Amino acid sequence: MTMRFPLRLAAGLLGVPGAMAGPPAGIPADARYCALQVPPPEAGAWVTPGGFLLAFPRNGDVARDYTGCRTLWVVQGTGETPLLMRLYFHGGRLAIVQAHDGRGGPEIRLCGLPSSDPACAGLADNPLLALDLPTWPRACVEQPDLAACAGDPE
C-alpha cells in the first residue's frame, strides 16, 4: 500500500533544509498523549488515496480547547505502523508539527506555528493536521464491511 499524500507532506518537511531537525524539544514531554510510540487499539482510521493512517486521539476525545498531541501512523501491514507525524495542539490550535519519514526512519523535523519558514507553509490549512480529523474505527482497516464502517467517519 502506498501513502502518497501523507508521505509527500512529511517528505516535504523532511526534504527542505529550512525545517528544524532534532528531537521534539518544542513539545512538552508530559503533554497529553505525546509519548505514544505505537497506535493504541482506540486509534481511528483515516483513509487516503493510497491506504490508511491511524490517528489517536479520535475526535470524541478532543475538546475544542484541547492541549496535547494527536499522533498519526502509516498502516503498512498487520502490526507494521511506522510513525508519520505528531501534532501538538495548544488551546485547540495547532502549535507544532513533528514529521517523521513514515517509513520507520530516524529523521525528525519540527515546525512551530505560526512560522515564516517556507518548509512550514500551508501546514495550518492542511485537513490532515486539523483539530477535527474524522476517522472510522480502527477495525475498518481490516474489516471494511462492518456496520460501523458504512457511515461517515466521526
Task: Break the fold down into its secondary structure elements and pairings.
Elements: H1 4-15, E1 20-21, E2 44-48, E3 51-56, E4 68-74, E5 83-90, E6 93-100, E7 108-112, E8 136-137
Give a description of the structure.
By secondary structure, the chain is mainly beta. The protein is built from one helix and eight strands. β4 and β5 (83-90) form a beta hairpin. The protein is globular, with a radius of gyration of 15 Å. Residues 1-5 and 10-24 have low confidence and may be disordered.
Quick summary:
The chain is built from one helix and eight strands; from the N terminus they run H-E-E-E-E-E-E-E-E.
C-alpha Rg (nearest Å): 15 Å
- Model regions low in confidence, pLDDT < 50 over at least 5 residues: 1-5, 10-24
Instruction: Based on Cα principal axes, name the global outline.
Output: globular
With strands numbered from the N-terminus, the spatial order across the biggest sheet is 1-7-6-5-4-3-2-8
Counting DSSP H or I runs of 4 or more residues, the number of helices is 1
Most strands sheet: 8 strands, antiparallel
Helix content percent band: under 10%
In round numbers, the mean pLDDT is 82
Order of helices and strands: HEEEEEEEE
Termini gap: 24 Å
The total beta strand count reads 8
- Label the structural class: mainly beta
Strand content is: 25-35%
Which structural traits does this protein have?
single chain; 154 residues; mainly beta; 8-stranded antiparallel sheet; disordered N terminus
